[in-house]
Design a protein that fits this description.
single chain; mainly alpha; globular
């Protein structure tokens, strides 16, 4: 499994729980949570997103945006 595939699998599994804990993300991928969610967003907008349903992609993007963007940027 590629790192992109592993990140996407983790994101799908944890999407209902705001993407999982910062600690679990660091242990699994060796990067901090904002970096992870930025990479997941990149994967979701690229050719490696696989066959994910559009609704799942939308849910994942929402989680990524919540975890990466500061609250004021999301409100605007």
């Amino acid at each position: 499994m590629t790192n992109d595939a592993a990140m996407l699998e983790h994101a799908v599994r944890w999407r209902h729980w705001n993407g999982g804990s910062d600690e679990d993300i660091y242990v699994a991928f060796g990067i901090n949570a904002p970096q992870y969610f930025q990479r997941v967003r990149r994967i979701l907008t690229g050719p490696n997103r696989g066959t994910l349903d559009a609704d799942v992609v939308a849910e994942l993007m929402e989680v990524c945006n919540r975890r990466v963007l500061p609250p004021m940027a999301r409100a605007g």
